[in-house]
Amino acid sequence: MGEGKSSVIVPLIASTLANGSDLLRVVTLKPLSNQTFELLVSRLSGLANRHIFYVPIYRGLRMNASLIQTIKGIFERCVSEGGVLVVQPEHILSLKLRP
Amino acid sequence: MTADELGVLYDWLTNVSRDVLDESDEILHVRYQVIYTAGKQMPVNDHPNRWIIIQQVFSLLQTHAVELRANYPKMLDIDTTLKGFPIIHVLDSVQFQRITSRIINNALEGRLSSLSVGILPSQIQAAARRFMTQTEVSDVDHVLIHSYCAGTTLFNGMLLLRGLLMNDGGILSYVLKERRWRVDYGLDPSRTLLAVPYRAKVSYINLVMEGH
After folding, report:
1. Which of B1, B10, B15, B17 has the most A C-beta neighbours within 10 Å, making it the best mutation to test the interface with A?
2. N or C: at which end does chain A have fewer Cβ atoms within 10 angstroms?
3. Reported pTM
4. Are B17 and A23 inside 8 Å of each other by CB?
5. Is residue B208 a part of any domain in this protein?
6. With contact defined as beta carbons under 8 Å apart, do B80 and B86 qualify?
7. What is the ipTM of this complex?
């Protein structure tokens, strides 16, 4: 606790790895998700002009072609702008398991 | 149609995404892993030898425990009041090592019918004995055993025996030596008239997490 892992190292690594060709996802626990989002906004958005993205995908989402395009569009924007995507493990699994 | 597009999206994501895990020990904890079956049904690794070997090791264990108790009645505790396999407690590390080394002798003599370690050259047998009893395996032994039987059912069987018989941390050592509760310690009149249980059911055991 208090060593700066989440508050210093995560934003540092996130901004370095979001290099315009990779989709940088910061995976956090559900209870910490908001906090991480706010933290990245305050550390990276103003200072480094990075957008922080949050795309909560859940299993109840009715998928259709236009929604998929929208999601893909957001992800692609995130990649090309060097943005950072904050996700929870559930979001990754929900996308994977969506029938 | 939608499924295909989702597949495309997911494959693309897999290719381009780079994940940073905050609190990774929590995120990757076993209790949050969702495990689904996939693919065709297949037999469990080393089927059916793993069961047969365990059964045979148990019958050897019973024989040796009874024999050793005849010589060292205070160091082994065998309860045959219930039908079936007796409840065995080994109260002494030396006796436990005797039992494991006897079981390995039997194995090397070919008494475990589905594990033919008896046919190994004597040099490898010596290495196999160390491999199955010692927690730390020397590089020499490891290379020797690996070069001789890596990937065979023989090697799987040796791994199984190692898991069972290893002198510290093996399953039998844990089950026979560590798992004791509701022990009637009684009185030790030579020492004191107080009955003091020094290891009770509620005492902390350092293998609590192995439930997974």
Report:
1. B17
2. N
3. 0.56
4. yes
5. no
6. yes
7. 0.89
